[in-house]
Structure formats: C-alpha cells, structure tokens
Amino acid sequence: MHELPLVFFTVFGQSAVGLFLLAYLSKKMGSIDEKQLKNANILAFIVAIIGLGIGGLHVGQPLRFFNMLLGVGRSPMSNEAFLSGVFVGCAAATLFFTLFYKQSVLRELANIATVISGVAFVWSIPQVYNISSIANWNTGYTTLQMWMTMLVGGGALAIAIGARGLGLASFLLGALVIFASRAGYQAFLTETGPMISTEQTGFWGFQVVVLVIALAGFIGMALKQRAPKATLATCVAAVLLAELAGRIAFYNLWQITM
C-alpha cells in the first residue's frame, strides 16, 4: 500500500473521464438535459481534482511535477503527467464557459476537448506499468483493468447524475469484463507471482462482492425509475471503494523479476 496516492490518482482520474464521456454522450442522445450535464461536469471535475491532488503527494515536492514533463514524447510517465494536466485544464475550461463566461460554442469545444484528452489520459496510464522487469504488471490485464475502472467508476457516477441508460450499460459492461477476466488474471499471476498474488485475495474479494451488490442495486433502481439520493450516493461510494481496493491489490503486486 506504499503507492496509495497513485491508487487514488488513477481510480479517481479514470472515473472522472468516464463521467465526462458518458454525460456528454447522454446529452447528445437526449437522455439528460443541460442542467444535468452541468452537474455531471462539476462532479467529474471535483473527482478529477481530488485524484490529482492526492496523486501529487506521490511526487513529494510540487515543483517535481514540472520535472516530470521534461520527457514528454519519450517517457510514459511524462506523457501521463502531461495528459493529466491537459485533461484537467480542458475540464476547467468547460466549467468556465459553463458557469462564468457562458459561451455555448466555446463550452462545446472545451467539453469535446475534455473528453478526447481524458480518453488519451486513461490510455497513457497503463503504458507506465507495462514494464518487462515487473512480470506481474507486464500483461494485457493491466491495461484491461485500467479501462474497466473508467467504465465502472464513470458508469456509477453517471447513474447518480441521471444518465441512467448509458451509465448502467457502462457499469454493466465494465463489471462483467472484470468478472469474466478475473480467473485468467489470477491464473497469470499464479505463474508470475503466486505468493504475492495470494496476499491480495482480500482486496480482490472485496472488489468483486461490492461490484455484484452495486450491480444488483443499480438494476433495482433502474426498474423503479426513482431512487433516494442517499442510496445512490452510497452505491457510488461503494463502487469507488471497490475499485480502490482492486487498485491497491494491483500496486501491491510490484515485484522485480529476478
């Protein structure tokens, strides 16, 4: 758990991107209105800022963040840092043109830029961890789980702001892929790091159980068409906790190949 700041940085960042994406698509499909899109973008920005702020603790001194940008284009870590900054900057511009300088064309362009830069940011994250010297991380399962957090976390947040159609579909797809790939992932880790992977059973078990419960809850709420805000908030918080647990397990797999 020594990489806890990065746990929050990646999970919250990916979930925020998912919400920006799903809310924008839902608005284009007519399933949410302007007010709901505004609320979604505000919530996504807050989640992203919390993730970035906690992730900054990993750097130690704030100015070191700028040193990380020196390798943009050749260093996966620098690319990740750069794209996270672009994503947050575009998100801030979206809110600026939504809340303060209300300009619909600029708001639309900023929102599109936020979605595109956000997806690029999510893409950049697993590139940092596909390292040949760390066999437990050097697998397609690493990339898969990073993208699924975007779908699961973003889907849960989207359901909470009213984008139930795409939100539930995204959450369902992400959860099912996590469930379906878990056996293969465990088999892979049994070969590369059996002892250290066994130690993560509690984290992975918590993740799967909570996702199953949340899935049942979201489906039940969708059928009823209405749900108490407190219940929705609890489900979303539980989903984010589940993804944080799964990410803790991932970082705990760090082990140099001998």
UniProtKB/TrEMBL annotation:
It comes from the Bacteria. One of its GO terms (cellular component) is dimethyl sulfoxide reductase complex. Keywords: Membrane, Transmembrane, Transmembrane helix. The keyword ATP-binding does not apply. InterPro entries: DmsC (IPR007059). The chain crosses the membrane at residues 6-25, 37-61, 81-101, 108-126, 146-163, 170-189, 201-223, 230-254. PANTHER family: ANAEROBIC DIMETHYL SULFOXIDE REDUCTASE CHAIN YNFH, ANAEROBIC DIMETHYL SULFOXIDE REDUCTASE, SUBUNIT C. GO terms for biological process: anaerobic electron transport chain. This is Anaerobic dimethyl sulfoxide reductase subunit C. Pfam families: DmsC (PF04976). One of its GO terms (molecular function) is dimethyl sulfoxide reductase activity.
